[in-house]
From TrEMBL:
Gene Ontology annotations for the cellular component aspect, listed alphabetically: plasma membrane
InterPro entries xrefs: Cation_efflux, Cation_efflux_CTD, Cation_efflux_CTD_sf, Cation_efflux_TM, Cation_efflux_TMD_sf, CDF_Transporter
Species of the source: Mongoliitalea lutea
Entry's Gene Ontology BP terms: intracellular zinc ion homeostasis
Membrane topology value: Multi-pass membrane protein
Assigned protein family: Belongs to the cation diffusion facilitator (CDF) transporter (TC 2.A.4) family.
GO molecular function, one term: ferrous iron transmembrane transporter activity
Pfam families according to UniProt: Cation_efflux (PF01545), ZT_dimer (PF16916)
Residue span(s) of domain Cation efflux protein cytoplasmic: 207-286
Ranges of residues in domain Cation efflux protein transmembrane: 9-203
Localisation: Membrane
Parts of the chain that traverse the membrane: 12-36, 42-58, 79-98, 110-129, 150-169, 175-195
Keywords associated with the record: Membrane, Transmembrane, Transmembrane helix, Transport
Protein name: Cation transporter
Length: 330
């Protein structure tokens, strides 16, 4: 899996460098600020791909004494850097576009520039789609971020081509700066999205998708002896997933039986995830006076109250730091 990540991020770097040359050539022969927006974003692609290559390498290293939770968070730095560079490039282009409104430059060879940008956009689109798909398969936020960025770049490139075609037909030179400003605003917005996601990961913000996936697999393998699961926390760093939870078991189980139940739950969670999974389970004994009402164990010899309900396990009640008998309190 790590080899797949590394291979595709290197391909992304090579392609980004080649497209950077093509787009700057298109800018040099046309003098179009709108085309410059695409060229500058390609610089971001190259820098981001280079940093992504390093982050993929670092995140694949095993945990050590200084990094007991592994190195997966480096991928959040990669996505954040990419977003920050996108924002800087977008703001620079806005400045350049406003300047060109007052001091317009002569535009040449627009048709050739259009063809070069269109071809670059198609290549970026194919690569971006592949990177996002491989990122989802390998649970790599870096590949996903890089893929989404390239797909965004493709979308803006194709719209840019449309705008430059209008400029080519109408000969209204001011359209060059207006188009560039519009695309720059979109670029800044997309960069903000990457930075926002990066900060969320570094701050250990709750990951709804990872939590829902964990809840789903536990429900699929739910056992009657697992009376309830609560205080569950799920964090994902790159391809690593960390899960903490409390598992309520019958109080009369001996230590070996408790260990076997905990191990079974851990195996269920580990086998469901293609990457590295670290599971910490805290076992709690049931409280007959409070748990019997929803305990699903049939013919329980120590039952004190009749079972009268079954509590659905959801991401909401499994995340609470309390046993599920609280759900019975009206």
């Amino acid at each position: 899996m790590e080899e797949t990540r590394s291979r595709w991020v290197k391909i992304s770097l090579i392609v980004s460098v080649l497209l950077l040359v093509v787009k700057f050539y298109a800018y040099l022969i046309t003098g179009s600020t709108a085309i410059l927006t695409d060229a500058l974003e390609s610089i971001v692609n190259v820098v981001a791909a280079g940093f992504a290559s390093y982050s993929i390498y670092l995140s694949s290293r095993p945990k050590d004494d200084n990094h007991p939770y592994g190195h997966g968070k480096i991928e959040f730095f990669s996505a954040g850097l990419e977003g920050a560079l996108i924002i800087i490039a977008g703001l620079f282009i806005i400045y350049q576009s406003v300047y060109n409104l007052f001091f317009p430059q002569e535009l040449d060879n627009l048709l050739e520039g259009i063809l070069l940008i269109a071809g670059s956009g198609v290549v970026n689109g194919a690569l971006g789609y592949t990177l996002r798909k491989k990122g989802e398969e390998t649970n790599s936020i870096t590949l996903i971020a890089n893929g989404k960025h390239l797909l965004t770049d493709t979308f803006t490139s194709l719209l840019l081509v449309f705008g430059v075609v209008i400029l080519f037909v109408t000969k209204i030179q001011a359209l060059d700066s207006i188009i560039a400003i519009g695309f720059s605003a979109y670029i800044v917005y997309s960069g903000y999205g990457l930075v926002r996601k990066s900060v969320a990961g570094l701050m250990d913000e709750a990951d709804p998708e990872a939590l829902e996936a964990t809840v789903k697999v536990i429900n699929q393998h739910r056992k009657d002896t697992w009376i309830d699961v609560h205080n569950m926390r799920v964090q994902q760093y790159g391809g690593d997933r960390h899960i903490d939870l409390h598992l309520t078991l019958p109080y009369y189980l001996d230590l070996k039986q408790v260990h076997d139940e905990v191990e079974e739950l851990e195996n269920v969670l580990e086998l469901d995830w293609p990457g590295v999974v670290e599971v910490f389970v805290h076992a709690d004994p049931c409280i007959p006076e409070k748990c019997c009402h929803y305990c699903q164990i049939k013919n329980c010899s120590v039952r004190k109250f009749e079972m009268n309900t079954k509590i659905d396990w959801t991401s909401i009640n499994m995340s609470k730091n309390q046993k599920h008998y609280h759900d019975q309190v009206k």
